[in-house]
Amino acid sequence: MDLSELYQDLILDHGKRPRNVGELPGHNREAEGFNPLCGDKLTLYLRVDDGKVKDAKFVGKGCAICTASASMMTEELAGHSEAEARELFTRFHDLMTGKITDEQMPESMDRLSALGGVRRFPMRVKCATLPWHTLIAALDHEHQTVKTE
Amino acid sequence: MTTRTTTSSYLTKAHQLREDFPILGRQVHGKPLVYLDNAATTQKPASVIGAIGRYYESANANVHRGVHALSQEATELYEGARAKLRDFIGAASEQEIIFVRGATEALNLIAFAYGRSVLKPGREVLITAMEHHSNIVPWQMVCQQTGATLRVAPIDDRGQLIWPEFQKLITDKTAIVAATHVSNALGTINPVAEMAALAHRHGAVMIVDGAQAVSHMPVNVAEIGCDFYAFSGHKMFGPMGVGVLYGRKALLETMPPWQGGGDMIRSVTFEKTTYNDLPYKFEAGTPDVAGAVGLGAAVDYLRAADMTWIEQYEHELLAYGESLLSKVPGLKLIGQTERRAAVLSFVFDDIHPHDAGTVLDTLGVAVRTGHHCAQPVMDRFDVPATIRASLAFYNTPSDLDALASGLGQVIKMFRG
Predict the structure, then answer these.
(1) What is the DSSP pairing of strand B34-35 with strand B365-366?
(2) Is B65 helix (H, G, I), strand (E, B) or coil?
(3) Selection from A142, A140, A139 nearest residue A46 by Cα
(4) Residue in A with minimal Cα distance to B31
(5) CB-CB under 8 Å, B355 with A3
(6) Most-buried pick from A112, B101, B128, B330 (CB within 10 A)?
(7) C-beta of residue B97 within 8 angstroms of C-beta of residue B281
(8) How far apart are CA B412 and CA B416, in angstroms?
């Protein structure tokens, strides 16, 4: 098992110093994600105008993989349409479940591919996908907790 | 370790016993396995694995049924295992030993067969704040059905039952006190004999969840004075899928059966069924005979190893582990009572347990990370999860050295 595949420098960096942390002023979408098995918990805030994700922030407590995934996701989201954001979710989910490899990820999602190593650690896949499931809940305008376990 | 002489003779024995466990010789991710997840399940000695294999190879038949030779042999093996377990926990009669799937099933059996018949509005069940979910949820279910009230005795910051609070919570309304003997998440040993005495003074029955105790210390239900004692085979070096409910005969006799079916009846007509004697009244259906035989073999093994030696050796091992972990910067032990069984539960301020667990795993070190099926304990200490290293007598100081050195790598990766 090669740990550096899982904990790449980019992931460790986002895990230690996550971007876009805090409640988003003027947000109009919000959802909470919770993994009761490990206690990972995050709240995602979105500002969606004219069908576009203008901004995304989160607060939460989680492992390095979950925190890095949330941090990288919020960086990636800004500027995408809702439909594109859902497409990103599908691609990311496919990457995590091994349906596609990191080489098959669109170039625009290059940075997210850094999380591709997670799929070789099946117990940790839920950590990486929790923020993304929370994104779908927020886009669906659900004010409820989504759970992965 | 306290003294050099004790250490060396104790260690020699631990090293010898270790050889009896085939799995401890394997590698994980190219590293020798360091198994520190014994509170989740213990490994099995060759004698237990062999007993199960031999049963299926030479004696397999259904029990208490046919007149043929194999059925008789299987019945003798099954009942022989029951006798070993009776002796192991100091029960008065084999009729008080009921084979179940595990501690969880044993606790559910008591909740539904006993709890449901004595609980009603105005009556109370008292548990502690350090229970495993299996000693919380069945009581919530039965209280909901009967209108009884569930009370929880609090624990202090060291993970110890707050005795004056416990005393206050036991009243004449209390019908049932259900407490763990040893906390799976913290290692705390509860004063179950004193708890039982107090429960009895108020006319309540005392139920002890012994799942985490039987592998670590001598247990005698008569000395504890409890009415029920529940434990799992797989946490005491026996197979998964079998466990024991001890119940005081006088109580078991008053209880209605829990499940209906074969073996638990004396006669059946469509008009009326009469139930079998103890313990069969509570063993509906074909039991896990091989499991019981394997558990009997585990009891033989533990008797030979000597439970008193195990208790003393693990006590020293725990002290060694604590001294190593106390030197790890930023590590906080959760659960620091004086009377503790072999559990080291801890957290870091800045490193999530799952990240630590993954790194340790790649080094061959198996620990549990998570809430340990004790979410209220995690809430009590305000942590989402802990890293738990739980010991058995086949662990050695070098296993703990491997843990400490692995934690050094964890820190190197996630700090700075």
Answers:
(1) parallel
(2) coil
(3) A139
(4) A1
(5) no
(6) B128
(7) no
(8) 7
Strands (E), chain A: 29-35, 40-49, 52-61, 145-147
Q: Which fold has domain A3-147?
A: Sufe protein. Chain: A (3.90.1010)
For residue range B42-72, what is the model confidence (pLDDT) as tens digits? 999 999 999 999 999 999 999 988 789 999 9
Within 8 A of A119 by CB-CB distance, chain B residues are: none
CB-CB under 8 Å, B353 with A38: yes
Of the candidates A112, A137, A128, the residue with the CA atom closest to the CA atom of residue A43: A137
Nearest to B258 by CA among B290, B285, B293: B285
Stretches where chain A sits below pLDDT 70 are 1, 142-149
**B353, B362, B414 ranked by CB distance to A1: nearest:** B362
Cross-chain residue pair B352–A64, CB shorter than 8 Å: yes
The 3-state DSSP class for residue B145 equals helix
The tokens of B86 are what?
Answer: 């009776």
Nearest Cα of chain A lies from the Cα of B318 at a distance, in angstroms, of: 26
Residue with token string 């989740």 = B40
- Side chain identity, residue B234: H
Q: Which residues of A touch B413 (CB under 8 A)?
A: 3, 7, 12
pLDDT digits (tens, 9 = 90+) for B165-204: 999 999 999 999 999 999 999 999 999 999 999 999 999 9
CA-based end-to-end distance of chain B:
33
CB-based contact B148:B111 (threshold 8 Å) = no
Question: Domains in chain B, start-ordered, CATH in brackets?
Answer: 4-32+306-414 (3.90.1150.10), 49-303 (3.40.640.10)
Q: Which run of H or E residues covers position B205?
A: strand B205-209
| Alpha-carbon gap, residue B370 to B321, rounded angstroms | 20
Give the whole-angstrom CA distance, residue B79 versus residue A87. Answer: 62
Peptide bond into B154 cis (omega under 30): no
- The model's pTM: 0.93
Question: Residue A50 is encoded by which pair of tokens?
Answer: 């004219």
Checking DSSP bridges between strand B368-370 and strand B365-366, what pairing results, if any? Answer: unpaired
- Cα angle, residue B274 at apex, residues B271 and B279 outer, rounded to 5°: 150
User: What is the residue type of B359?
Assistant: V
Q: Does residue A61 belong to the interface with chain B, where contact is any CB pair within 8 Å?
A: yes
Closest partner residue to A38 among B29, B361, B384, by Cβ?
B384
Q: Are the CB atoms for A68 and A115 separated by under 8 Å?
A: yes
Name the residue with tokens 């005969």.
B249
Mean pLDDT of B273-286: 94
Of B29, B358, B370, the CB nearest to A124: B358
Query: Where do the domains of chain A lie?
Result: 3-147
Q: Which of B20-29, B159-168, B310-319, B375-384 has the lowest mean pLDDT?
A: B375-384
What are the distances in angstroms from CA B155 to CA A87, B138, B295, B336? 49, 21, 33, 12
